[in-house]
Structure formats: C-alpha cells, structure tokens
Amino acid sequence: MTAPIALIDCNNYYVSCERAFDARLVGVPVIVLSNNDGCAIARSAEAKALGIKMGDPIHHLRDKVRVHGIRVLSSNYTLYGDMQRRVVAACEAFARDFEIYSIDETFLDLSGFEDRDLVAHSRAMREQVRLWTTIPTCVGIAETKTLAKLANAVAKKDRRFDGVADLRDDDARHDVMQAFPVENVWGVGGATARKLNALGIETAGALRDMPMKQARAVGTVVLERLVAELRGVPSNAVEKVEPQRKGMAVTRSFGTPVTTFDSMMGALSQYAMRAGEKLRQHGLVAARLTTFFHTNRHKPERPQYAGSRTIVLHPMTNDSLELIAAARRGAERAWRDGYAYTKAGIMLDDLVASDMRPRTLFEGDADKRDRLMDALDQINGRFGKWTAVTASQGFRREWKLRSEMRSPAWTTSLAEVPTVSAL
C-alpha cells in the first residue's frame, strides 16, 4: 500500500511573514514587491480583492495604492527564509520525513501515521504552525506528490475542505478531478495544455484516464509519469529520466543606473562569484560564460545600448575566480562609455558533471583551487553571504538592488530584534 504524502503550503507567504511582526498589516491590503521594487510578487487577500494581479508593475498601481491605502513593502528574503525554517520545525513531529519544495511549500512523508485520522492530524499540524509562526497554511493529502499538490489547491480554494483536503477518498478524488482544469495541474505547461485541450482533455480526470502511450507521445515521459501519479502510482515506480541541466544564469537589475566600468565590474564580479557557488552546489562545471548588460529598454527617449560577449572556458571550470576573470574579458570587449546601464548578468552554458569534465595538460594545481573554493563557500555559508569577497566586488556597491520599503531582519539580526518596553 502506498504511504500517504501531504503538502503543506503557506498562504500568501511573504505577506504572512510580514504580518507576523507588524500587527498593523493585519486586515489591510498589502503587497510585497520583487527585486528592485519593480512589481507585485505577493498580495494579501485584501489586495487581491482590489484586482491587483501577480506581476503588476508598481508604477501602474500608484493611484490604487493611494486611494485604498495599500501597504507596499520591499521583499525581505532573509526574513522569509528564516520563517520557512520555523514552519518546517513546527511540522517535524507530524511526519516521518519532509522535502522542501519551495520557500512556502513542503512535502511530508506520513508513513507510520496511516492508522490516524490524517485530516485531524493535519489540522493539528496547521495549528502548530500558526502557534509557532502565526502563518496560515493549507494541507493536501494523497498517495502521490501530484495528487497532493492538486489536493492542496482545492484545500485552499474550496471552503468545503476547510483548509485540509484528503484525496485518498475515491469519491472526493473523483469529484475534484472531474472539475479541476487540466492547465492547473502541477507540471502541465501552457503548450502541453493546448495540446491536451485539442484532444478534448480539459480536466485532471480526463488526463488521468488518458492512455499512457498517448501521454508519452504528447508530452514525453514527463507527461506519462504525471498521468501515472494522477492514478496514484508514485513517479519512482515509473520510468524516470533526470534532465541534464544545460545552462545557468545570475542576473539582476540595478537599484541605481551604472555608468562606469569599475561599478559594472563590481556587479559582474558578484554575479560570477554567485554563479560559481551555484555550479559547485550542483557538482557542475561550465564550458562557456556570457557577460551581458543593457540600458532601460522601457525608456526609448534615452540612449540605448545592449552589449554581450561569450568567453570559452578552457579548461571547463566552476572556480569563481576564473569566472570573474572571464567576465572581465567579456565586459571589456562589450563595454561602451556614455550609457546608463540598468541590468547585467552572467550566463553559463554547456554544463557537465565536474567528475566528467575533459582534462587538459595545463590545468595547474586544480586540487589546490578546489580547496580554496570549498573554504570560500564554508566561510560565506557560516558567517553570512559576502563575508569573504574579491576586491573587484568592492564594498560600497552603489548598484545594489533598490529595497526602500524593506522590513527589518526581525529574526536574524540582533540589532533589529523586536523590543518591548513597559511604561
């Protein structure tokens, strides 16, 4: 018998984190902005009711913000990451194991708890999370991750479930899947949804009943595995093909336009450092690095320029210092004076596993550089991001992201811990 899986999802997560430390935000419309305070990426229920959509640019919302008194906040990822840790800690006693899927979603292995009323069990878990963090959640229960994801979606939107949906019940699963749009099924992209609609498959139930061979023909083994999961067969019991990651990128918009090469290199050095860190985390090396930067395309009245150059990395590498050197070579070739650049980035291509990279005769002491990178990662991991940096990154960083309305780091900085005083 397949062990049950639960997915616990935090409601309006970024807004809920902010409300945990600022009671003035409760009951009023709140939106949280993306990097560089560009557009709405989280909205309270009150903000959604005012018609604010995900991704709406803030400059289009100025009048609505003023008229309705909407509270606008910059994203505070340090706070959100720490609150995620607290949410998971609150769930640990309710599951045998867990898998963090995203910053606001966690899959829970409920094997060993089958003899319990799992709806009541999940309600107790939700209450524990609320007690420890104040964050509201919804829970979906099923035999597979895809079904648990679907169950969570209906738990959040359908009041009949009161925040917890258990789709192990045949009747409940049938009713939900017959009404659930296929384009909203986890893993079904827009192009695949259009192909399925053309075949008359418009609901999760119709997708579940699709012949497996036809599913593979329409959407490769990925869709075939998804159909199996909708039938209650976990994906690890179906043919599984792990995709080979081909590329990686680190890009940012600047808080203040960059007009000098030294400032641009400060930003690109930081992006290259982060790109190297990501490569090492995934056990990969890259064969090509592309440096790019451009002006604000949304202001055509200003001088426009976009430059990029690709550098071949020989030997292939994940060494951040080598990536910074390659980024500088590319930037020097692409740079043009007299422009105000608003975005830049590093892209890495032709990635392979580090233990499979082709060797060359003149690599130098690769083991020594590997130990250096490992030490760098450990220092920054233990003492905080950018504790150890290269000189080219600089310290002033005028180009850093704009976040003029960011809340304090309530839980991770002693200087910003909330204080209570008695009169």
From TrEMBL:
GO terms for cellular component: cytosol. Keywords: DNA damage, DNA repair, SOS mutagenesis, SOS response. Coiled coil: none annotated. Its EC number is 2.7.7.7. GO terms for biological process: DNA repair; error-prone translesion synthesis; SOS response. GO terms for molecular function: damaged DNA binding; DNA-directed DNA polymerase activity. Pfam families: DUF4113 (PF13438), IMS (PF00817), IMS_C (PF11799), IMS_HHH (PF11798). Residues 5-189 form the UmuC domain. InterPro entries: DNA/RNA_pol_sf, DNA_pol_Y-fam_little_finger, DNA_polymerase-Y, DUF4113, PolY_HhH_motif, Rev_trsase/Diguanyl_cyclase, UmuC. It catalyses: DNA(n) + a 2'-deoxyribonucleoside 5'-triphosphate = DNA(n+1) + diphosphate. The keyword Hydrolase does not apply. Belongs to the DNA polymerase type-Y family. Monomer. Poorly processive, error-prone DNA polymerase involved in untargeted mutagenesis. Copies undamaged DNA at stalled replication forks, which arise in vivo from mismatched or misaligned primer ends. These misaligned primers can be extended by PolIV. Exhibits no 3'-5' exonuclease (proofreading) activity. May be involved in translesional synthesis, in conjunction with the beta clamp from PolIII. This is DNA-directed DNA polymerase. It comes from Sphingomonas aliaeris. The lineage of its organism: Bacteria, Pseudomonadati, Pseudomonadota, Alphaproteobacteria, Sphingomonadales.
